[in-house]
Amino acid sequence: MEKFKKIYYYFLGAVTGICNGLFGSGGGIAAVPLLKKGGFPAKNAHATSLALTLPLSAVSAFFYAYERNFKWGDALPLIPFGLAGAVLGGFLMKKIPTNLLRRIFGIILIISGGRILFL
Predict the structure, then answer these.
(1) In angstroms, rounded to a whole number, what is the distance separating the alpha carbons of residues 101 and 119?
(2) pTM
(3) Which of 4, 21, 29, 90 is surrounded by the most beta carbons within 10 Å?
(4) How does pLDDT run across 4-45, given as a tens digit for each residue?
(5) CA distance 64 to 9
(6) What do you get for the CA distance between the two ends of the chain, in Å?
(7) Distance of alpha carbon 2 from alpha carbon 64, whole angstroms
(8) How many CA atoms lie within 13 A of 84 on its CB side?
(9) Any idea where the domains of the chain sit in the sequence?
(10) How many Cα neighbours within 13 Å face the side chain of 1?
C-alpha cells in the first residue's frame, strides 16, 4: 500500500505541475482535491497545496518570462497586496471551520469554471 501512495503522490505532483504551467498557479486547484483524496485533512491539503504551488509558480514564471509573455514590472505592483492577502488568508484559514472552508473552495471552483466556460 505504501508503494501505491508514493506513486499517487508522484502523479499528484506531475498533475499539479502541468496545471500550474498551463494555467498559471492553477495547480493548487488540482492539488487540493487530490491531496484530500490521498488522505490529507482539508486544512492540511490547502496548506500543502500552497507550499507546493510556490516553487511551481516560480518555475512557471521563469518560463513565461523567458518566452517574453509578461514583464516583471507588471507583476511588481501586485506583489505587496498579494502578500497582504496571503497573510490574511492564512490567518482566516485557522479560524474558518473545515466545512465552511470546503464550501467556499467549492463555490470558487464553480464560479471559476463558469467564467472559463462562458466568458
Answers:
(1) 26
(2) 0.73
(3) 29
(4) 888 999 999 899 888 888 877 677 788 888 899 999 998 899
(5) 26
(6) 43
(7) 36
(8) 5
(9) 2-118
(10) 1
